[in-house]
Design a protein that fits this description.
This protein has a domain at about 45-165. It has helices spanning about 30-55, 65-90, 95-115, 125-130, 135-155, 160-165. Helix 1 packs antiparallel against helix 2 (about 65-90) and helix 3 (about 95-115) packs antiparallel against helix 5 (about 135-155). By secondary structure, the chain is mostly helical.
């Protein structure tokens, strides 16, 4: 149907019902929040191994540590690296970013849960009581890691996050220049 002066007629815009998707795409608040919390979790996860490596006295080497302690330190480092890459990838709107955030959160929680088991018998109740007393910065760091890793897992795993990351804006068709008379 033609409008005035032969131009195509515009269709009247009607309000969207709640069931219809928005034409501008899904909301990315959960993905952005997961990415920001992923950056926080990456920083606090990397704190423990970095301070341990910096504070190694002369004459002492990593080979002197038990294998399980090395596994725990490696889990913290892997969690930090995966969370950092996942956060950046999420900001670049890739689905792999959310998957990396989930994997990094699991590594961080695994490292936290492995730590009390290194003492011989896993005394989780005593370990978490000590952490939640906030007596030193290491305890605050671990509680911050626990909270941020859990929130990253929840936010990165939401369908709304994946919907935002998978959504691609429709391609705008190239228009030919109009002739003006």
């Amino acid at each position: 149907m033609s409008g005035l002066h032969g131009h195509p007629a515009r269709q009247r815009e009607r309000p969207l019902s709640p069931a219809e998707p928005r034409p501008d795409g899904p909301n990315g608040t959960t993905a952005i929040a997961a990415g920001l919390l992923g950056l926080v979790a990456a920083a606090v996860s990397g704190y423990l191994p970095v301070t341990l490596f910096i504070g190694i006295p002369s004459g002492f080497s990593l080979g002197d540590l038990s294998p399980w302690t090395l596994v725990d330190l490696a889990a913290y480092l892997i969690a930090s690296l995966v969370l950092l890459i996942g956060a950046v990838s999420t900001f670049l709107r890739t689905t792999a970013g959310a998957l990396l955030l989930i994997a990094g959160g699991l590594f961080a929680l695994g490292a936290l849960l492995l730590e009390p088991a290194l003492a011989g018998s896993p005394a989780y109740v005593e370990y978490f009581r000590t952490l939640f007393r906030f007596e030193n910065f290491a305890a605050v760091d671990r509680v911050a890691l626990l909270g941020s890793a859990v929130l990253v897992l929840i936010l990165a795993g939401l369908p709304r996050t994946f919907g935002y990351l998978r959504h691609r804006a429709p391609a705008v068709p190239a228009t030919s220049p109009s002739r003006q008379w």
